[in-house]
């Protein structure tokens, strides 16, 4: 085997002084370089193409489903109702905002109202990505977060627990005022409400913090770092199925609901006691003396 | 109306007594007896079940769950309920179906004493005053009144232990010129460029948030002092378009690029507030629905709060971080006795 290789090498070596040898070497080197580049480089040309296609596809969907309120180019339609803009501009809201609004079914709205409720999603996952790409192309804004931004994969058990505890503290400081300490949501002024955030996909929670949907304040990456947001999500995931130590938790709505229940229940008990005392079966028959 | 007359007039109007079915039918009485015994037997079963549940199911980290409920607590609770409920039902049935069924009428008499008794008491009192000689011996009368009056003095002096008086701690917070505004819990300082329009930060003065690497020159507070300061000094930081803000008189330079800081303590009864609406800049207090307009010097736009939310004047230090220009220019939180309520 070694002999065979060395014989071949010897034959090649004897060819190196031929006239076309230099050209052949250059051609081989060029081919190798090009091949290696094709094999290892990111397929950026293809991706640009598909991004443009995605945006074009998103624009088609946008013109059908969104343009009547947000304008043909996402410039918004300046109609106001009680001081609120009905169709706000989408320039600069970012792909993350569109992905959240459409991905949770809030958009397209079925009717105008105080706020867009969460409802069954209208579009497929591909269509949502296309719409988000189109809205993202209208102006600079937050992009759809990558799974690595909000997942705890790659952390040790201890680090996960630490993240969950830290996320809980951040949540209790920044979020519970509106969303309740168990993420059950709560009332806001003028008929608005902070929605329940248990049972929401991590990516949508991340996007909500990033973009501040509807009347919510935003928690941009400068405000609350991606790691802080990841920890908040870790905490929320840990209370998805709050384990009950027994009894009816009433959705964790807090002392007002529990107090109201106690008063109503006590009232019912008092009423029942009065009812027991006031009713008894009587007969018109006379007692027979034994 | 005398007692005798009252009794005569009403007793005749009482309807004849009606017996219960169990009183007139022995078979029904025996059936009731069996029912009551059954209720009490069920109660006994539940008592045993409490003990069985207690020893059968693990608690704490090894607890078993049924439909999200801790099985130990659930079964103990249900069997305790059954134990008391079935015993109660049986007892009530016993009282209502089998125990004696006498109707008892208990007449009430007039609350006033007869006139002759009242006259006798009056005479005895007059006699007592005359024999004590209060009007004849003014020295004794005055000393009696004086000693009784001074008995109140120790009670008033002992009230001092409720003190010391708060002094001026309600008038001021820890905020000082140049003190950094840091993120609550996280503890990092904030640069104006960190925040975009629409961002909201729940913030604290730097000495109130402990961080892994303490900054030199900062005296971090601990324990009760920390909690007392936190109750006054918590602030809310938010960034709006500078043209949306309508700064009050003398507050023109209190914001940094549309970043404003307000006290987080409601001026009504002191609940911490952070229910902000980004689009309207309205901050709602969850306790009694007081609403403050943060784009208009924190003025009250709805609810029972009597005063605007105090605003913390902001500036930027030489390292570019947001700091306070000074303490609040008025006491934060609810009204108190000595507060100038203007």
Please specify the SSE layout and strand pairing.
The complex is a heterodimer of chains A (290) and B (342).
Chain A: H1 2-15, H2 21-40, H3 44-65, H4 67-70, E1 77-81, E2 84-87, H5 94-103, H6 125-136, H7 147-150, H8 157-174, H9 176-179, E3 186-187, E4 193-194, H10 202-211, H11 226-238, H12 255-278
Helix pairs in contact in A: 3-6, 5-6, 5-10, 8-11, 10-11
Chain B: H1 3-11, H2 21-24, H3 26-56, E1 65-66, E2 69-70, H4 71-98, H5 115-132, H6 138-150, H7 152-158, E3 181-183, E4 200-205, H8 223-233, E5 235-239, E6 259-263, E7 275-277, E8 282-284, E9 291-293, E10 299-302, E11 311-312, E12 314-316, E13 322-324
Antiparallel strand pairs in B: 1-2, 3-4, 4-5, 5-6, 6-11, 7-8, 8-9, 9-10, 12-13
Question: Would you kindly provide a written description of the structure presented here, covering whatever features stand out?
Answer:
The complex is a heterodimer of chains A (290) and B (342). Chain A is elongated, with a radius of gyration of 33 Å. Chain A is built from twelve helices and four strands, in the order H-H-H-H-E-E-H-H-H-H-H-E-E-H-H-H. In chain A, a hairpin with a 2-residue loop joins strand 1 and strand 2. Chain A has a two-stranded antiparallel sheet. In chain A, helix 3 (44-65) crosses helix 6 and helix 8 packs across helix 11 (226-238). In chain A, 28% of the residues are buried. Chain A has 290 residues and is mainly alpha-helical. Chain B is 35% helix and 13% strand. Chain B has helices at residues 3-11, 21-24, 26-56, 71-98, 115-132, 138-150, 152-158, 223-233, and strands at 65-66, 69-70, 181-183, 200-205, 235-239, 259-263, 275-277, 282-284, 291-293, 299-302, 311-312, 314-316, 322-324. In chain B, the strands form four sheets. Chain B has a five-stranded antiparallel sheet with strand order 3-4-5-6-11. Chain B has a four-stranded antiparallel sheet with strand order 7-8-9-10, with no helix packed on it. In chain B, strands 1-2 form a two-stranded antiparallel sheet. Chain B has 342 residues and is an alpha+beta fold. In chain B, helix 3 packs antiparallel against helix 4 (71-98). In chain B, strand 1 and strand 2 form a beta hairpin. The mean pLDDT of chain B is 90. Chain B has eight helices and 13 strands. The two termini of chain B are 63 Å apart.
